[in-house]
Amino acid sequence: MKPFIGITSSYGDEKTLNTSYDNIDSITQAGGVPVVLPNVPTAEAINVTIGKLDGMLITGGGDIDPHLFNEEPLPNLGLLHPQRDQFEVALLNEAMARNLPILALCRGCQILNIAAGGDMYQDIYSQITKPLLQHTQRAPRSFPFHTIHVTEESLLKKITGKSKYRVNSFHHQAVRRLAEGFHISALSDDGIIEAFESSEHSFVLAVQWHPESMATDGDVPSRKLFSAFMNACQQNMA
Questions:
Q1: In whole angstroms, what is the distance from residue 137 CA to residue 200 CA?
Q2: pLDDT above 90: percentage of residues in the chain
């Protein structure tokens, strides 16, 4: 039996739910059954949802409400969807309490850290004074754009077998203070946290890039990442 993987969704026009087919295709190619989740932040809905899933893919999207980490909005903060924030924070806390496998991508990386008690930069370009790389690439979505340096002994290194490789990049927000129980898995050349993982769960891994777009274009490290996630979900079913 294939594992059921919950995929979080963004809001679209006319109150629609959106998720990229790259998210769906990456799960199906790795051997899972994708289930797109609506943003219903009630305890009952979350408990029922978690009970039927074998893993969760926390996807990318818009900006995150800074009130979740006790900050006022800065000028370069983008479009918010508070109901999605509330749903994902509650969903992630319940999933981590149940040790459900989690793979978090880009925005998902940031909301996972916030759900666990960390914080983030609302806008790296205005909040970090040192020179930065371009983190919102002007290149095709699947193009490997800038380099990351993977921490030795990390789960990410074990999965990809690489200490250094290139990833795509589409963000202006980023993890700042990492929550307790997590450790850094990768950094970019300018010191931005590009990946982190849990020290307390069987598989909780977050990356700041979009491996779903690279995996569907044949990128080997990205496909290994989804394969490892699916293996963890299958073990969770046992």
A1: 33
A2: 95
